[in-house]
């Protein structure tokens, strides 16, 4: 309304002598008004588009903030779960370490026990062998002493010397016959094994 009032005010100061000029001014004022209205409409349209863009951007920012809060909450939850898992893993490691140490100690005790047992058995076997060797030596000494006593008695009694000599003469024969029988048995076993 102010744009239309200005030309009317401008025309009121002019006499009607210049009617052509007033018509030109009116045409110019109408064209300016149309151009200004068009520019205003374009500006309003752009403003509306910008408002829509701003609203969409605000919605996008809101969505991003919500997602960020959700991600942060998930991150805090995962951190808490991770700390719990670390604590549990540490406890499990300590438990398995204690169990491993106990098993190693038990294994060492078993090895020590069996090594001591084997050493004791070896010492007992060695002691038995020594006792057996001592007994064998004693028996040899006894047999030698018996032989000496028998020889001494044979010097006193000639009949005993004859009997000892006869047994001594017969004993090699018996040993020879035993050796021959053992050889024949070995040969027969060899022939049987070859036939098989």
Automatic annotation (TrEMBL):
<feature type="region of interest" description="Disordered">
    <location>
        <begin position="129"/>
        <end position="196"/>
    </location>
</feature>
<feature type="compositionally biased region" description="Acidic residues">
    <location>
        <begin position="137"/>
        <end position="147"/>
    </location>
</feature>
<protein>
    <submittedName>
        <fullName>GK21724</fullName>
    </submittedName>
</protein>
<feature type="compositionally biased region" description="Polar residues">
    <location>
        <begin position="161"/>
        <end position="173"/>
    </location>
</feature>
<feature type="compositionally biased region" description="Acidic residues">
    <location>
        <begin position="177"/>
        <end position="196"/>
    </location>
</feature>
């Amino acid at each position: 309304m102010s744009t239309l009032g200005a030309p009317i005010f401008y025309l009121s100061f002019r006499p009607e002598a210049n009617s052509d000029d007033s018509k030109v001014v009116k045409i110019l004022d109408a064209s300016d008004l149309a151009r200004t209205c068009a520019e205003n409409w374009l500006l309003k349209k752009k403003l509306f588009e910008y408002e829509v863009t701003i609203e969409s951007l605000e919605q996008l920012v809101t969505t991003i903030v919500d997602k960020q809060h959700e991600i942060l909450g998930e991150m805090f939850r995962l951190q808490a779960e991770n700390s719990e898992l670390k604590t549990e893993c540490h406890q499990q490691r300590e438990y398995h370490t204690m169990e491993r140490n106990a098993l190693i100690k038990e294994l060492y005790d078993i090895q020590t026990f069996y090594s001591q047992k084997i050493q004791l058995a070896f010492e007992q076997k060695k002691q038995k062998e020594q006792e057996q060797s001592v007994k064998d030596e004693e028996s040899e000494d006894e047999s030698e002493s018996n032989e000496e006593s028998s020889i001494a008695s044979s010097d006193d009694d000639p009949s005993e010397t004859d009997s000892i000599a006869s047994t001594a003469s017969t004993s090699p024969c018996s040993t020879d016959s035993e050796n021959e029988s053992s050889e024949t048995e070995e040969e027969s076993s060899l022939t049987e094994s070859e036939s098989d």
